[in-house]
Amino acid sequence: MIKLNVNGQAREVDVDPATPILWVVRENLEMTGTKFGCGIAMCGACTVHLDGKPVRSCSTPISRAEGKAITTIEGIAEDDGTLSKVQQAWIEAQVPQCGYCQSGQIMSATALLQKDPNPSDEQIDAAMAGNVCRCGMYGRIRTAIKSAAGNTQAAKEEA
Amino acid sequence: MGKWSRRAFIGAGVVAGGALVVGIAVRPGNPTDELKPLLAKGDGEELINAWVKVDANNKVTAIVPHAEMGQGAHSVLAQMLADEMDVDWEAVDILEAPAIPAYVGADLGREFIAPTLEVPKVLEPTVQGAFLSLANMMDLQITGGSFSIRGSGQRGMRTAGAAAREMLVAAAAEKWNVPAAEITTSNSILTHKSSGKSATYGEFAAAAATQDLPVKPRRKKVEEFTLMGKPMPRKDIPSKVNGTAGFGIDAQVEGMKYAAVKAAPVVGATVEKIDASKAKTMPGVLQILNMGDFVAVVADGYWQAQKALGTIEATYSEAEGQNLDQGDVFARYAKALDEVGSDGGDVETDEGDAIGTFAEASKKVTAEYKVPFLAHATMEPMNCTASVKDGRCDLWMGTQSPLGTRRDVAKALGLDEDNVSLQNAYLGGGFGRRASSDVPVMAARIAKATGYPVKMIWSREEDTAQDLYRPSATSRFEAGLDDKGKLVSWNNVHTHLFDPQEAPQVPHYAIANHLIRKVDVPMHLRFGPWRSVDHSQQAWFIESFIDEIAVEAGKDPLELRRELLARSPRHLAVLNKAAEMSNWGSAMPRGHGRGIAFVPSFGSVVAQVAEVDMTGTKPRVTKVYCCADVGFAMNPDGVAAQMESAIVYGLTAALYGEISIKDGAVQQSNFHDYEMLRINEMPDVEVTLINGDHERLGGAGEPGLPPLAPAVTNAVFAATGKRVRELPLSKHSFA
Amino acid sequence: MRNISRAALLVLTAALAACGSEPAAEPAEQIVVREPSDLAIPPAMNESPTQDTALAEAAATDAVTGIDGEAAFAQCAVCHSIGKGEPSDIGPNLHGIMGQKAASVAGYSYSPAIEAAGITWTEAEMDSFLADPLEKIPGTKMASGGVTDGDERAAIIAYMMDASGS
Fold it and tell me: Does ipTM top 0.85?
């Protein structure tokens, strides 16, 4: 049994410790918000947080998560269901199209803003370049990150 | 859309007690004379479908016949219906029309595949005309061709909304004993001002259901729109920021197992032998299958299945395409084009005397362009969950073609079509890839062979190497200018024509003499529609060549296009707006350039100007200005988003997109060798919309793509003097 | 309506193309490892993990001294070759990486982040990079979770030097 902490809840799973976090979360814990995109950490669709840091869950074995806090897209809203600032900004800027990559985008953006509350364009590029959006909503992602950062002037100029 | 349950999709669309369900029921004896010839399909024809439901609690459900793949169709279709119906937008729910025979008369729609059987003009604004349009779309239930809004929305949802409103008004008029004309509607409330009476739609839902269906409900004029033309937030977006949106890959079915697959690398080859000695000892593995055309491993978990699959050694049969390399593909094209010369091949258009005027031209311009195969690379890899049991097959997936899928799966399993059902989910990208049924057929075959409900997921490697590709193609042009520098002759021959047929045509440009031809060059790879389909390559050929002609004629590329579009004010307005947005003609720094392209497609008109910076090691597109006229933008923010999206999809292809083959197999496998544009390379994009014709809507999902590649390569020429005649740009060195 | 018709035909064509030679629904060979009736027994996930893939080996590596560097490197080998002259794969070839400037393997398409990083792969730099790649170089394509164990990182670095003959 592997003991996990997922979105603040203690969970136990009986899996091969080499199983990537992605599949444990999706199949064993039945939380399907985290997405499979490439399997080689090249697209970011599977991004989750380990102790607040973004990792590509498709390429990170579950054994690495022992003793750490896993946070998924299902766990970033407030306890009362209020969406996080980043999620709200995502709706405001109407970011998602197909929406498949957006869990990963939001997890990367959330981690970025926790580290750099007011990121520059370069910092946004660096933090978000690992997340592919095939619908091409990069302009709106940038706008939403700036809006979530409280930098509404920059967000407006962007939009 | 809600979570999966078998019960939910079998029961969907069924009339609940006390609800008004507007749609239409056409049964024997019911059709009008006008309708009869279109319906004739033998005795017992029965057709029931619905577009909108109003329940007693005042909840309105819009039932939309299209898949939601990010283009926003669900929300905009509901928006159109809600506006005509005067319902409270906040109280509108959306349900995708289920692909079940009880809901759709499958035989009727099939008749409409024949292009001659259009909905007659006289029927278009009527409920029955709308119904026929919708029956057609619902039967095929294809989401493609940028058609959802201009087809189903304009003809179907609006008419249905207007009809529902009139039935509610009629019911209230009857009960209140007042003239219907004195009743007003707004926000799902009926009001009779002089008597002070008012009621919710919900209160009259049951009574409205007993009213006669209006024959020709009155649709709103553009100045009466309250929701149409407004940037309403999309209803699917909240579920796409919190992880609850249900995609095909998220299906949960009781007892479900996971399948990983690997097809023979060369299409047409079969799997001769497999060595699964290691795989069968691996944890979680349940079954290992050689399905002839592919190998499958079914396991308790997907990762276990994929891991075991990786250890299987397979040998494949000889296949026709196995010796083909990418160079041979272009050599084949060249040979076929050489053989037809300047006047052979299948003639698509022959107007005037292109050959004669070319022979006498003062100036001659010729060019040849080449494009590679392209994969779709949807973010959600191909997948399908299938259960085959007791002579039935149930499918859970995201598809652009639910009914086509049902038919193909039924055929593959030898089942009756009625015994195949499908629950559609959100699509994690479609772009044409999810219009084909190769994937669900595989999943159904595995489910049948193993007896398990199976969720089959393709690895990214499989998704890249077994796609239905945008074809590689070559196009050759000859153009002649007269002694005044006027373009008088246009002669084009290209390999491959798929769809739409008008993609290689240039009727918007005033060129007196045209000859446009194609040659077919068979290829073992599988092809499918790719965002904007043939326009994706033809627009690049045409707009690159127009630019080359401008250079030869000593004209500014914008000026030449203006001359050629002089007789088309709507086209000219779009071109001029894009030029104005970009401040066309203003000076740019050394090593930077600006390019323009203009392409009408899918009923819309789009012009784009791209700016490139060629001073670095690779081309960098810094800015794209886009002006689009989609007729009338039902949701302007949604249309702008589609333009932004198509620009990125087109730019990714122009910069990097290349699927190549070696020994008959695709060489690329994942995002490291089939590269995607990322945020750090994202140009600034500015979109302006023109509402040029609110009666004739154009598409939005695709028309933003075709002008992008030529605008970029024309800009590269402006910056460097180097003309790009083969895509992608990553093949070229600009050092 | 014309376009619908075409779209319809097009999809049908694509579907036909997809069917190709009409494969039979039945498998040519079917190996049943576990019968469906075995479902009652605990899933095979309980069995001891096999040692056949990089991730499995990495996870199974005991975090004590004497870590086999080559085994530890197996997790890197999923994406990286290290033999002299071997082509780059998902990640760049790592032959001779230690002591080199970052982003210097010819022909590999690096992320802008690592190109701009301006670092040289000393043992200390490599150690901090492997510990948390995204933290060290935000925007790197090597977005794996990092190697948390310091001894394991040291073993990997030692192996990279050995395998490069340095």
Answer: yes
